[in-house]
User: Which sequence fits this backbone?
């Protein structure tokens, strides 16, 4: 296999997507709490990068310096396109302080490339970080395959950015399996659960009251699902459980990020919750 740094001329049809791919990398890096992030697009034979897009518009050298084993980790992910999380100690006597996350962009038999993230602010990357990165990977795949336009992709990125609004209140992101992969401080204040307690939990299992859990156990309510599949925003008033066990009346606003993968639509939900 050629060294990954040997670039080829990118196909012209990708060039119009590069500015949007840059936005995807930048925002994914922020939401993952990583210091460095990049997207390496591969040629069809997976022998070389045709483009390397680093967060903040930086170059390869910056993220390469942050990856503990350098090109070896990148080549490992190219040879075996499965998510890879690594913890590396600075020395044999110190706790692991360097972290790396690699997530492949795979659609059918095509491997488009890989996300690379390094040096997480909170320590090490978690399984929920992998799933959050995969959500951004689906956006990138849809853009590269042409199933989503640049305008549609930017709309979804705007929705992701909403969770960074300091005035946004209680916010969460759930993956297509409805597991919580992002939980902000506002959600902790409203529901009582810390980020560590909430991440990886099925939203309804964590917060659903018994009467609503039975109704939603097979998925979203049909009317809400129809609205979300069309890209619309669903809003409803409901009861949710606080960590203490008391019921909280809230207004829940669900905003979808729809991904098209092999003809199947998956939905990542961004939730905003307000006490009523």
Assistant:
């Amino acid at each position: 296999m050629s060294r990954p740094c040997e670039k080829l001329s990118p196909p012209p049809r990708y060039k119009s997507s590069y500015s949007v791919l840059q936005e995807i990398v930048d925002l994914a890096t922020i939401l993952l709490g990583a210091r460095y992030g990049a997207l390496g697009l591969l040629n069809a034979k997976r022998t070389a990068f045709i483009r390397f897009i680093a967060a903040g518009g930086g170059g390869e050298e910056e993220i390469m310096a942050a990856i503990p084993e350098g090109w070896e980790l990148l080549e490992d992910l190219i040879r075996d396109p499965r998510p890879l999380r690594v913890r590396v100690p600075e020395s044999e006597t110190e706790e692991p302080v360097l972290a790396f996350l690699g997530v492949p962009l795979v659609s059918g038999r095509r491997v488009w490339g890989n996300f690379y993230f390094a040096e997480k602010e909170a320590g090490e990357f978690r399984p929920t970080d992998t799933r959050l990165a995969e959500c951004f990977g689906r956006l990138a795949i849809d853009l590269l395959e042409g199933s989503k336009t640049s305008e549609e992709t930017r709309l979804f990125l705007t929705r992701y950015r909403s969770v960074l609004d300091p005035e946004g209140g209680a916010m969460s992101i759930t993956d297509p399996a409805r597991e919580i992969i992002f939980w902000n401080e506002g959600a902790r204040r409203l529901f009582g659960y810390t980020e560590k307690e909430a991440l990886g939990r099925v939203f309804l299992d964590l917060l659903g009251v018994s009467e609503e859990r039975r109704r939603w156990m097979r998925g979203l309510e049909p009317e809400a699902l129809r609205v979300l599949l069309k890209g619309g925003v669903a809003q409803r008033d409901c009861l949710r459980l606080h960590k203490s066990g008391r019921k909280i009346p809230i207004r829940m606003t669900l905003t979808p990020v729809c991904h098209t993968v092999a003809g199947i639509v998956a939905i990542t939900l961004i939730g905003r919750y307000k006490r009523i």
The longest strand covers residues 247-261.
